[in-house]
TrEMBL record:
PROSITE patterns in the cross-refs: THIOREDOXIN_1, THIOREDOXIN_2
Key words, A-Z: Disulfide bond, Electron transport, Redox-active center, Transport
Residue positions of the active site: C30 (nucleophile), C33 (nucleophile)
PANTHER family: GEO12009P1, THIOREDOXIN 2
Protein name (Swiss-Prot/TrEMBL): Thioredoxin
Cysteine disulfide partners in this protein: C30-C33
Source organism (scientific name): Leucobacter chromiiresistens
Family statement drawn from the similarity comment of this UniProt entry: Belongs to the thioredoxin family.
Record-level Gene Ontology MF annotations: protein-disulfide reductase activity
This protein's GO CC annotations: cytosol
InterPro entries reported for this sequence: Thioredoxin, Thioredoxin-like_sf, Thioredoxin_CS, Thioredoxin_domain
Residues flagged as site, Contributes to redox potential value: G31, P32
UniProt-annotated site: Deprotonates C-terminal active site Cys, residues: D24
Length: 122
């Protein structure tokens, strides 16, 4: 599956459903972004059940701002509408594969319980 470009109009719809969504925040002028792009694209071809999406931070500054993106590339993993990972930096292919494996293994009921407990404690 090829990657999908997300905009301010499509971001929420693409990330709020069931399943796993990986979002790469990038810019054309960013060297690490350009080196990570083929790794991200290759993973998208391998994992057709996952949505691989990209946000061009230059074209979509409001999306970047809303998600507090301060460094690129930044990779977000959203599972079943819940942000479960967000980290700046380009990942090598083996680390991206490990991240995908860990996202698949998550017990989302437990994740939601932990989120609710942290909100109650705050």
């Amino acid at each position: 599956m090829a990657t999908t470009e997300l905009t301010s109009d499509t971001f929420a719809t693409a990330t709020q459903g069931d399943g796993i969504v990986l979002v790469d925040f990038w810019a054309a002028w960013c060297g690490p972004c350009r080196s990570f792009a083929p790794v991200f694209e290759a993973a998208s071809e391998k994992h057709s059940d996952i949505v691989f999406a990209k946000v061009d931070t230059e074209a979509e500054p409001e999306v970047s701002s809303a998600h507090r993106i301060t460094s690129i590339p930044t990779l977000m993993v959203i599972r079943d509408g819940v942000l479960v990972f967000k980290q700046p930096g380009a990942l090598p292919a083996p680390q991206l594969e490990l991240l995908i494996t860990k996202a698949r293994e998550l017990d989302m009921d437990d994740v939601r319980r932990q989120i609710a407990a942290s909100k109650t404690a705050a």
